[in-house]
Design goal:
Low-confidence stretches of chain A: none
CATH superfamily of one domain in chain A: Deoxyhypusine synthase
CATH architecture of one domain in chain A: 3-Layer(aba) Sandwich
Oligomer: homotetramer
Largest interface: A-B, 73 and 73 residues
Distance between the termini of chain A: 40 Å
Structural class of chain A: alpha/beta
Number of strands of chain A: 12
Strand content of chain A: 15-25%
Largest sheet of chain A: 6 strands, parallel
Number of helices of chain A: 14
Helix content of chain A: 40-55%
Chain lengths: ~325, ~325, ~325, ~325
């Protein structure tokens, strides 16, 4: 059995990211897994796989949001699954709100008094939530006029159509007809706004069950299918469960900070996925462990440079 | 400022669990946090707090399910939030399915061929899923006859009424009028079954938005409120978000294997919760890090022995 | 293949620890691994294995120190390996110093001003270090009078002979002729004291190389051998490397909070140990992931109750 | 208080690493910490701080070894601390041995039979260890002829002088008069070789205590001092303890996969370090959490590009 050798890495002035990721492939440990992930993601595109991209809301709070929107724009994400916080914060940014960067161990009581809500080392102000509420109610009114009973992905499509931000996930998804699934749509401020609206319009229905047909229709049994699952939770599970019903993934990249030892969805590996048929037994798969805020831009830069060189994608 | 001292722990034959947890309080590290958690949970009951209990589906796969059901029975959980997998596996066990214990690093391809689906070191067979499907379709028919549009917690109440298992979460919740919320109800086999049923009965609606009023009604602004959040994800978020809308927790115990460094919901600490008002600034709170399968029985044994001694609960 | 079933756990008033650990064996996830660990540790004694116990210094800061001393006293640890901090803090406690329990996220600048040195949620004062220094210099003088060139384990034996504390690791080790290895003896205050002493006594030599023969002699190729490795670092490596040279472990229990993904010693599993021959291919082994401050007292209580019932150990 | 804003990141073809790291500074989560680390490391050089570089042996197994050697060559590491495995594997690579890259969950019994020793996803063959032994015995003989009693760093200096590999840590350290400390020198094969040699040459002494004076002399109280601590264990502790004795760090970058919750050295944060005086209260410091195999090349590329642009270092 032929095996790759460890090769010592060295700095050169002005290295490019793709070259660095290639070198990390011979550094070992998670560097080797990261390099493998870049190749698998490029293979998804090379082989025309339907690609499911899943992420948790904190990643939309972070600056990864623009990259997610770009992936949709460039045809690298055919289906998106996220949580309500991800929807909310995408819209907030689209309407001009700024999120702030602080430290991990601040004085949380002082932050509370200033109306700054913390997510790790990031902050969202109460004002941003207030302006989001002001935005949502008229938006829901417009949607209700068009349609009284919508599946979640249809609701998100309508919301996306109203945005005017190239860096918005919902905007790019709506424009590029990429469905965005959000299996727990009411779990956040948006849920509260939907509830307030329904109080006045009892025939307004967000039909989660009907969205299942959209999930099933998002790829076919015969399609090659791939998943890029960032973090865990219902976003990850919903994507791989949907793919399971259509026969399982041919390509799978999981990125997570969780470990398998607690049996959590976040920690579930691509290998575990094979027992369920979520990941095909002969799939090209890798689980990379580490912070997605660092690793995902790195891995996508490598994969996208390769795709660009092969004429598979245009400029960002 | 007075501080507790570290005290050396020693084995005695036949130690009881409560005594051990008390000693862990002076061992330090997570032992000290665990002991603090037991006191906070006992305080929730002593002070009549409305208690929200949240857990992820893997914990229902594990043997913690019986303990969750018991907590509901004894009046120690006034509101429950979980994910679809937790609902499914509670029902599976209630109708007689067994889950198996293996190892963490098995031959996943061999498991797949045997139809054994792995979750960490636990396994669920394909047959269990098949029998679950056979059970669900008539169950949904019965519910539909009574009501065509239900909030999720109402659906779960109906499902609970049909079960006959003292160790079932849904059964005890239905019997004791404890609402069970599941913000991502379609994210699993149950979602598929609901979808199949709706295909034949298009007026069957699972109304997630309406459930928001039930979430708001599950405690009042004036109630003392507590949360025991096991793991992360939408279960944890939904509970603390619901509590936030009612003024925030007075008592909070988070148990998790996640770390705060990635900004995930699983890793979010009780201190971070204070910035949002999810946890009151002067709340009695602790975040304990470690495997819930070990720590939760330990902490509850301590808390429940105390409550029993004070006449706050009966026998299990 | 027969497999254990998951069994629901429930609280009963006044449960004993051994019963709880047995139940955890059927709860799953780390509970199942913990129960397995208790059985393996009892088997070490049942089968007369030479048992190597390793731990890091923070565990001696914590209240686990008394349990370690007790294990030595009861003949459950035939060889001990730790780091310098573990030696220092064992002596500090033996001469009457108290360590304190605080919180994980305190005001570290304020602690610094108060002379309180933090290790997670534990604190050691500057005064304790000062009194430790006052104790060590005369102690070293006494030892030097007896012997000018000592292996590390011989030095630690002499130090143990001078202590008068039943709960001291060094005291019990000296009394019971259990060697204590500390491969990085100078890495701490003790190193500074040794250095100061050697300045005045240049012929004072701590011979680390000679201690290798003591490590080799601590078990034979023909002995059954077991290891209980708590945490990682040189303590863990030194024990399993020493055992490797004598043919590998028949029994291995690793407990750690580290994951295997970074290739660290802390995260190295018993399975990985088999590739090296550190753990025999057919060994009885388990890796348990979680906080040792909670899990180790739990696992030892179960194992020791079993040993006591079988007449293998006396009372603590 | 002014705070940085989160900025959305996007791919551009052929991005350079420094640009990416700068963007990560506005992505948030560990990306923000990583960017901060790059600035702190550049500041160490800008302000002429004595820089302590510490790493664990697995990082020398990986391809990071070449980068460590390069940092020494370029004057970016004034003091090095590592473990015995790091010394061994640096020498092995210098005499031509190759390490291999595999997967994390292989068949460990099969690897054992093939004589392939696993460290995460890396492998070292038995043959490499055999050839290392063949190399060491004559090398020790040569050193013994020159000097019979050596401090550890002196022994490592002599070993470095014998190597002829630009990518070797020991070679570059010897050439550039950078002391390499290894507080647990006997903890590995090298310990066994030293022991075998001492059997025949009883007056051969590796004087760990004497090395303390070299540690103290490696910086002065008046020097600005910085530390880059990769991973945990005695390497990290020895460096920060040595710096503490000289007044504490002005700059500190810790990179680790460990969390603070267990009180381990690996998880100890720069903030905790302030309570001890290891890190000065007003130091420029950051703790970055994640896999060093990915993050360290990234952070050094950014820092070194900046230093190069400012004329502080030459080409690699």
């Amino acid at each position: 059995m032929w095996m790759e050798k460890v090769r010592d890495i060295k700095w050169k002035e002005g290295m490019d990211v793709s070259g660095l990721v290639d070198m990390l492939g011979n550094v070992g440990f998670q560097g080797a897994e990261l390099s493998r992930a870049a190749n698998i993601i490029a293979d998804m595109k090379r082989n025309g796989a339907k690609t499911y991209l899943t992420f948790t809301s904190n990643m939309v709070t972070s600056g990864l949001r623009g990259l997610f929107a770009q992936l949709i724009k460039l045809g690298l994400a055919d289906v998106v699954v996220t949580t309500t916080g991800g929807i909310e914060e995408d819209i907030m940014k689209a309407i001009g709100e700024d999120f702030l960067i602080g430290r991990y161990s601040p004085d949380d009581m002082a932050l509370h008094e200033k109306g700054m809500n913390r997510i790790g080392n990031l902050m969202i102000t109460n004002e941003s939530y207030a302006r989001f509420e002001d935005y949502m109610l008229p938006a829901l009114r417009k949607i209700y006029k068009k349609q009284k009973r919508l599946a979640v992905s249809e609701l998100l499509h309508e919301l996306g159509l109203m945005l005017k931000d190239e860096d918005s996930i919902l905007y790019q998804a709506a424009k590029n007809r990429v469905p965005v699934f959000c299996p727990a749509i009411t779990d956040g401020s948006l849920g509260f706004h939907l509830f307030m609206f329904q109080q006045d319009h009892p025939d307004f229905i967000v039909d989660v069950v009907r969205d299942f047909s959209n999930l099933l229709a998002s790829s076919s049994f015969d399609d090659k299918k791939g998943v890029i699952a960032l973090g865990g939770g219902v976003s990850k599970h919903h994507a791989i469960f949907g793919i399971l019903l259509n026969g399982g993934c041919d390509y799978a990249v999981y990125m997570t900070t969780s470990s398998p030892h607690s049996g959590s969805m976040g920690g579930a590996t691509t290998s575990e996925g094979k027992t369920w048929g979520k990941v095909k037994v002969d799939a090209n798969e890798v689980t990379v462990i580490g912070d997605v805020s660092i690793m995902f831009p790195l891995v996508m830069a490598r994969a996208m440079d390769a795709m660009k060189a092969e004429g598979l994608i245009g400029n960002g």
